[in-house]
Amino acid sequence: MKNFGIIYCGYNTEEYVLDSIEPFLKQKNHVVSAVSVPFAEYKEIDNIHDNTTEILRELVNQKKLKYLVDSPKYISEAEARNLALDHLKKYNLDYIWIVDSDEFYTEDD
After folding, report:
1. Could you tell me if 7 and 33 are in contact, meaning their C-beta atoms sit under 8 angstroms apart?
2. pLDDT at 73
3. Which of 8, 9, 40, 45 could form a disulfide with 34 if both were Cys (CB 3.0 to 4.6 A apart)?
4. Alpha-carbon distance 69 to 59, whole Å?
C-alpha cells in the first residue's frame, strides 16, 4: 500500500473545512499536515476572524491531524506550505498531495 502525505491549506473556510478534510483523516495510509495562516499577499485586506484555525487545532488535539502550521502570520503561501512539508519529511511517504480547503474529494479519489 502506498503512503500519502497531505499538505492541507485552510484559512477562512470554517463553514466547510471539516467536510473538505474528513476524507483524508479517515485513511490509514495518509499523514495530514495542515496550514492555516493568513498569507502575506493578503496582509492589507485581512480582517477575517473565523474559527478555521481553531477547528484544525482541535483535530490535532484529537490526534486526527498530525501537524498544524498556524504561525507565523503573513508569510508567503509557498513558505507556509514548506513548513508543512518539513513536517511530512519525517515520514516514509510515496506521494505528497497539496489540497486546499475549498477542494472536495471522496475517499475513492
Report:
1. yes
2. 80
3. 8
4. 13
